[in-house]
């Protein structure tokens, strides 16, 4: 069954318009209007997901089938917890890490950690109780509005996430990470292809059409 909301196209739904208000900027008005008219936001609220990003992971898993019952999953940059929530609901044991706090989730162990700290991978493995089957990263740097700068900053986070994945994954494991349009850089892509048997770039349907985000799915870690 497809994880996509049945009304994701927006057809047949009356569009909500936000009135101008003193103190509300044009950009904040546009953001609020987009949220009110986003079927994934409504669907996430209806299903009790922490964020609409939950559908991105569900759609990626529908294509690649990496969420397994009993798997050990590491979710990097987990706040607010949408991806951890989905993985735990699928029966995985989840360790979530972020510099920000998240509200507790059933089946999820949270570790407040800075991924640039060299001691963190060992702490993560200790929490996992062994190598991970799956490493997830939906991390993105705060956008500046300058596409090239945003791409570079997000790729830097993807590189950090990959470093952690290469250290904690078991042979045969999977890495899923966010990059921006244009995909992984040559050097990052080369590292992935050297370490995994299959590397794909994917834009799931739940990713907004106007968004430049893209995901890399690296399958079958060579170890």
Describe the protein's architecture and organization:
With 223 residues, the protein is α/β, with parallel strands linked by helices. It has one domain: 3-Layer(aba) Sandwich (Rossmann fold). The protein has helices at 26-36, 39-47, 53-64, 82-89, 120-128, 147-168, 186-195; strands spanning 72-76, 93-98, 108-112, 132-137, 169-180, 196-202, 213-221. The protein has a seven-stranded mixed β-sheet, with helices on both faces. Strand 1 (72-76), helix 4 (82-89) and strand 2 form a beta-alpha-beta unit. The longest helix is centred in the C-terminal third of the chain and has 22 residues, at 147-168. The protein is globular and about 50 Å long. 37% of the residues are buried. The model is unreliable at 8-13 and 27-33 (pLDDT under 50).
Provide the descriptors you would attach to this structure in a database record.
7-stranded mixed beta sheet, 36% helix, globular, Rossmann fold, 223 residues, 7 strands, alpha/beta
Give the helix/strand layout.
Blueprint (H helix, E strand, L loop, with lengths): L25 H11 L2 H9 L5 H12 L7 E5 L5 H8 L3 E6 L9 E5 L7 H9 L3 E6 L9 H22 E12 L5 H10 E7 L10 E9 L2
Helix pairs in contact: 3-4
